[in-house]
Amino acid sequence: MKKKIKEKFITVNKNRTSTAFAVYFFVIFAILIIQLLTCGSQEFESFMFGKQADSQYEILDGHFIDTEFVVSQKNANSMVLNGYLDNDIKFKNEKLIVDFTDAETGENIQHSELFLKDQIDEKNILILFENEISEGTHVKMRVRSLGCVEKGPYIGISETNDSAEYSWIDGELSDSYLCASICYKVKTYNWLKPCVYFLAEILAGIFLLILHRKTGMPLFVKKTSGQETSAVAETVPLKKKIIRIALTLVVVWGIIFIFFDYVYMKTMEATVRAKDPEVICEETDETAQNISLKEGESVSQVFTVSGNQLSAVAVYIPNVDDANIRIKYDLYDQQTGEVVQSHKVSTKKIEKLSHHLNKDQRDKIKGALQGYYVLEFPKAIENSAGKQYKIVITNEKTAGANLELVGGEGEEYPYELNSQPMAGNLCMIALYSNQTSLGTMFKYMVTILTILLSVLIILSEFGNLSTGKTFVISALMLAFIYSFLIPPFCVPDERAHIDAAYIISNEILGINEIPAPGRIYKRADDIDLTKENTMNVTTERYREISENIFQKSQNENLEIAYADNPVLNVTFLNYLPTAVGFSVARLMHFNMLTMIMFGRWVNALVVIIMFGIGIKKIPFGKATLAILGFFPIVLQQIASCSYDGILMGTIVIYVSYAFFIIYSDKYSLCDLGITFLSGGFAAAVCKGGVYIPLLGLFLLVFVKIFNSVKKGIIYTIGAAIPLGGVFIAQFSQRILSIVAPASGSTYREGQMVYSITDFLDSPNKLVRVYQNTFVLQGDTQLKQAIGGALGRLNVFVPWYIVIGFIVLVCVCGLKQYNDTIKIKRVHKCYISLLALASIILVMASMLFAWTANTSNYVEGIQGRYFFPSILLMVLLLRNEKIVFRNKNEGKLLIYGIFLNALTIGMVLISAL
């Protein structure tokens, strides 16, 4: 009977496996057909004039540069001027003028005027052709400026030429050529890449099928030894648990209250009281008049304000240091005559205007800072915009000198001295408290952290939550906080990531047309030329969130906008969650900032779920993975629009499933397939292949499956074939550019980057560069890898918090005494070599893609690039000598959340 049941089970399992492989091959074939039918894309073929910018031409009024060329084919779309630099000019109404004429007839083809203030791309300027220029037309292009008298932008000039015929500078024939490209709209069909991917998928399927037939590995197993279990609760009496919970909560609440009260004092009090200034009447030397008030005398001024939350006025008091006067000031609603605000203040306690402004605001009104003092109202007036008020200032009591004020020439109603109309206006600046919502955001953040810690402390005592569930719940709340803590555009290169996700969002919403090279269609409200590629975390960024979150878009008309696109370094899947968030927000008609936050939240949700899957699957080191996910740098990246989050989540799944197979007894073909897929995605199609050494884990996987090193090597080579095909299809062009014999490409300020040829003759130079990088940048990279430098790498977290995370993740890596899983010493050495190889490749990628060939160390590295290597290394910390008697993973996670609470407070102090 048992034999029949076993035979029946084997037959059912074979049928399921055959069906699964049939479905797999059908699906990948269907995907190939779809890709072949839809692989046609609109692209642009560019023909360069001057190749590389050997020098810069400053575009000034009265000067011009001419270039002649022939339109060589149909569908001429645009002209791109390369090598553009704004020359650190804050443009206002300056224009770039580009004229196209028929060189043979002199007939005007197109006259284009571009405002330079609208140009945010520091690489090129685009001039779209309004009408198609016929093939064979001989065109003369003239580039000049309007409004750039003493200082103008730069454009690239090249000594080499490809497609231009002649070039003139200020009318004189030149041997140099304008760095420009004429672009033609073309339809391309990229059939090769889908076919290569299909071939790799076929080989992977055949490989898994052979593996299944050789080993009889089941398609899946319902229960595995690696399934996560809840932490075992201590056998402690209930009364003692309650007392311990109560004492712990009191201590935690006390620490949080004291710490965040300190943070509030250092940041929020000053930030919330900061005000926006509006100059009503400013003092000037030509119109200044002295207004002297004896005791009991008063001066009044009627004025209109433009903003809400009117909270104070600043008046010019030149003798405040020499006087001891009690000032009484009353604010009347001019329409109703009611007293809106009334207060008294001594000149000994009155504050300077500069104390109520942030740096940006002080820079705006530098001339009005000296001598102005603030008369603050007891409460801000919420709906003050557009209303007219009268301020009455009285010298209520003085000990000696009169109260001296200053008047000027203004357009408002004339001031009154003791109810007598006088010529001119009282010099005054209205102040608005538009920062009040920041204090509310701060209190919400502290409340969320306090509740999260309290709930987890209670549950950890009773062991009711598994490590994976604890991580998912905690990480979601922390990521939500970090999405506000590091605002949009403040994560490295986030504008480029936003553009990449926007491109995919356009495709999701059916907007497939590309208007010009490097340009896409965006909603008008989503085009903000003030946004840099990476911005500083400032009060203005926080205020922007608080004032605009969940607001509707005002203008959804599609307009042409510049867009960067770093998708070539990864795949569209890395941006898909963010793009989905963008699309949902756009369908709901939310504004740009809310759209970005939606993208961040969806990205964080997907990545945290991926981490949770990895934590559940890995047979040991669950708390280690969780604390790695709590690293501030990880939370920052997953709560942003960066592709790093999806890459980190994929690596966690890959390592977890690989370790599950290596160190567990029951595994399935499904587990192997997920390992194969996630490993290939993380290593072969992302980040230029710098994580390819991680695929070395497959050797340990196959050695475990076959219990033979020889077969393990053979099957590892077999697995490498399809993955190698995918890698070549993804990065072949980049590889060729690195191994090219030319020494690098243009770097900042005309310098060149390193090339492999620079080290062929002197390999010891490469060793020295690596050595210098470890010595000079080692501590910096370690700090960045944890999260000691956030935002634009200028928001600093103290070393003691970084060390706290390092100690915590190392403690989590240690095993519990009754844990039977052991990592062999040969495995530790082998995995360590894989991690080291990945570190070397990461450094090599930045050496050949970013580092100037005059530098003696690798530039441009950021600590988060080493996340996969750190993940492997901390998992290897478990040993048989240092073990836990009772390892409560729930409490270890609470320590991680507590360290994040400290991090959040220190980020606010560092940024504000």
Protein model, in words:
- The chain is of the alpha+beta class.
- The chain folds into three domains: 45-185, Sandwich (Jelly Rolls); 275-434, Sandwich (Jelly Rolls); 443-911, no CATH class.
- It is 44% helix and 20% strand.
- The chain contains 22 helices and 33 strands.
- It has a six-stranded antiparallel beta sheet with strand order 6-5-8-3-10-11, with no helix packed on it. A six-stranded antiparallel beta sheet has the order 19-18-22-16-24-25, with no helix packed on it. A five-stranded antiparallel beta sheet has the order 14-27-17-21-20, with no helix packed on it.
- A hairpin with a 5-residue loop joins β5 (95-102) and β6 (108-115).
- α2 packs antiparallel against α16 (709-739), α6 (467-485) packs parallel to α22 and α14 packs parallel to α16.
- The longest helix is centred in the N-terminal third of the chain and has 37 residues, at 2-38.
- It is globular and about 105 Å long.
- Mean pLDDT is 86; it is low at 229-233 and 741-746.
Shape annotation: globular
Strand order of the largest sheet: 6-5-8-3-10-11
Structural class: alpha+beta
Total beta strand runs? 33
| Major sheet size, sense and barrel closure | 6 strands, antiparallel
Summarize model confidence as the mean pLDDT.
86
Q: Into how many domains do the coordinates divide?
A: 3
